[in-house]
Amino acid sequence: MNISDLHALWEQDSKFDRTELGEESLRIPQLHSKYFKLFSEERKVLRQWEAAYKQLYRLKFEYYNGTLSEEELKDNVWEPFNLRILKTESQMYIDADKDILKARGAIAQQQDKIDFLESIIKNLPARGYQIKAAIDWEKFKVGM
Fold it and tell me: Terminus of the chain with fewer CB atoms < 10 Å: N or C?
C-alpha cells in the first residue's frame, strides 16, 4: 500500500455522518483497530528495509574498500571496483551509490507512511470530542 492509498482510505474514513452521531462514536474503536493494524504492518516493513539497508551498506563499504569477495561480487552482479581510495573517501562513494540512494528513498517513503498512520491514530481520540461537540450543537439548535 502506498501513501496515496492511505490518504484516500483516511479521506473516506475520516468523514462522519452527522445524522448518525451515535453510530459514528461507536466506529472509533473499529477505526483505531484498522489503522493500528496498518501501522504495525508498515512498521514491520520499515524494520525489514532498515535491516536490508544495513546489510547493503556493509557490502558497499567492503566493495569500495576492495575487500568484497569475488563470490559476493558475483552474487550481487557488481563489477569489481578498480579505484584505490582512502577509507575516509569511501563514505563519499557509499553516499552517492545508486543502490544506497534507492534504499534510503524506500526507507524515507516507508517512514512517511508510518508518520501518517501515527498521526491518524493520535487523531482518533479527538474524534470523540468532535462528535460530542456536534451532538451539543444539535441540542443547542433545538433549544435543549
Answer: C
Highest mean pLDDT among 70-74, 77-81, 109-113, 132-136: 109-113
pLDDT digits (tens, 9 = 90+) for 99-136: 999 999 999 999 999 999 999 999 998 888 888 888 88
Of all residues in the chain, what percent carry a pLDDT higher than 70? Answer: 99
Rounded Cα distance, 69 and 127, in Å: 57
Q: How far is CA 34 from the centre of its chain?
A: 16
At residue 92, the 3 state secondary structure works out as helix
Domain locations in the chain as residue ranges: 44-132
**Sequence-ordered list of residues with C-beta below 8 angstroms from that of 134, at least 6 positions apart, any chain:** 18, 21
Q: What's the CA gap between 10 and 12, in Å, rounded?
A: 5
Q: Which three cell numbers stand for residue 8?
A: 484516500
Residue 71: C-alpha distances to residues 34, 36, 59 (Å): 45, 42, 12
